[in-house]
Amino acid sequence: xxxxxxxxxxxxxxxxxxxxxxxxxxxxxxxxxxxxxxxxxxxxxxxxxxxxxxxxxxxxxxxxxxxxxxxxxxxxxxxxxxxxxxxxxxxxxxxxxxxxxxxxxxxxxxxxxxxxxxxxxxxxxxxxxxxxxxxxxxxxxxxxxxxxxxxxxxxxxxxxxxxxxxxxxxxxxxxxxxxxxxxxxxxxxxxxxxxxxxxxxxxxxxxxxxxxxxxxxxxxxxxxxxxxxxxxxxxxxxxxxxxxxxxxxxxxxxxxxxxxxxxxxxxxxxxxxxxxxxxxxxxxxxxxxxxxxxxxxxxxxxxxxxxxxxxxxxxxxxxxxxxxxxxxxxxxxxxxxxxxxxxxxxxxxxxxxxxxxxxxxxxxxxxxxxxxxxxxxxxxxxxxxxxxxxxxxxxxxxxxxxxxxxxxxxxxxxxxxxxxxxxxxxxxxxxxxxxxxxxxxxxxxxxxxxxxxxxxxxxxxxxxxxxxxxxxxxxxxxxxxxxxxxxxxxxxxxxxx
Length: 497
Known about the structure:
By secondary structure, the chain is an alpha/beta fold. The protein contains 19 helices and 18 strands.
């Protein structure tokens, strides 16, 4: 699977035509679907053997939740399902949990809600509401509510049985193994949570999770950005849709907030406000949005604009000094907070989207600098060797390859490598033992520390802790994605390379 996903990414970076790009996207999605089926089967066998593993570690909750939504954004678009996300500002940024398992739970539940709300299946446009709130100081309530086809009581009674699906007919229109909810229930229980389901045929389903959300000791007492004094006006059409709990969201931020509904012509009393007000303009026709901006600028002193769009192809990020555009459906709370912080002067301007995009496509000068760096791949599997080698070449590096830890140490002794990328499980000498020996030699001979990044298929199942204990500096989970690989290497070698 690592070979499949890795080579697909290599092909996508080699300038395929639009048709080829589309086909590669289908192959990639199929590969990840197969990977998920494999993981489900392995997890089910562990459940039966009583060996399902969970860990407790500081977990970045907000990015994890938004990552789940973005991961399934293409699915929601394909199924014509509108996603509405709400994360209470009181939800902590980090909690103590198992990040991999929590993500697995949310992906299973959220993907089910989308699949069973497909417009083709329900015969109407449906929505999925994804809400995360604190139910107490140490527990959170996650609600995933859809307006899809729902279930009857007979189906609900068998919901958490293996290979059970809500549409059991031979012409079933929703794919899946029927193992996801069985695994989800066990994982929720192992993490100290509870799950409840309510549903009505043709009305939809609501899944509620009650989960532990204790904060790491070092995070307790940290104060968020203060938005006191910030004035926000939400401007939309007369029939425009407001995001779920948006008034509660801004109230918790401490923002002065009001909603204005209007036709194409704004009235002065609707938009006249104090200087430096931020106007959030929700989806409308481009001509109307442009006209509203002109009217607002004539009446107000130094207005700021946050434009929201439901069009995936539109450019996002900073458009002008006083204009930022974010996506809607889903509207990501972190993007809203960041945009308001920048527009209000509460936060410095961060790297813009163009720079982030360019970081994925090194300039010729960067490629030449990277070509002088010395990287060593330690991997026994020939396919994985080729994949990682091709990915690094696309990023501008010319790596050497060793087939096991013993050969890698010999090569490392004779050549000063800037970084070592090593598999964990290999014959003759594995990555753990290799790392320990390299660290011992560095101490004995007073050498500079060589960064070692583990390449592991088991990063969330125990290998991550073993990597650090063996002296490795970081790890990349398989299947390897080029963007992750680039970010990890850059973090050790520096942005200038």
